[in-house]
Design goal:
The structure is a single chain. With about 160 residues, this protein is an alpha+beta fold. It folds into two domains: about 1-130, 2-Layer Sandwich (Secreted effector protein pipB2 fold), CATH 3.30.2450; about 130-160, no CATH class. The chain contains two helices and seven strands, in the order ββββαβββα. A hairpin with an 8-residue loop joins strand 6 (about 90-100) and strand 7. Helix 1 (about 40-55) crosses helix 2. The longest helix is centred in the N-terminal third of the chain and has 18 residues, at about 40-55. It is globular.
Amino acid sequence: MEYSDVTGFAAGAIGEPGARTFLLQLTGPWGRHTYLLEKGQVAALAAGTEQLLREIDGSAAASAAAPDLVDELPRFRVSQLGLGYDELSELVTLTIESDADGDDDDVWYRMDVEHLMAATKQGAAAVVGGRPDCPNCGLAMDPDGHACPTANGDLRNHRP
């Protein structure tokens, strides 16, 4: 399914570090659509946006503001994200693929570069705003520490 006229795009997390849910939300005349994804996917979207902006010389600052995330049930869990750019319309296409079998749920959103930039800036801030990384192994630490594998720790109860 394809949607255009995106009026708002938010990427980030709801909840406290260590128990956060990462979401994408897109709004337009068709309503608000919410998707569940992983922290790494939000980070990859930010990196992909930076690469796309370099390729299209999108050096302008984002004039659009990303809306706040709303805690609601997602349409589906994201397996893959894709970005494309149409030079004629100067619009970005965000492809969101479902992790469910079949292509029925895969969607495409067409938006201006400013909405993409605002959402990925918001998402990148959410990624770095989580739990601190262990200086030894790089895994996320809970407030009381963690079982570090470099110290022969047990990772069976580790939360990514």
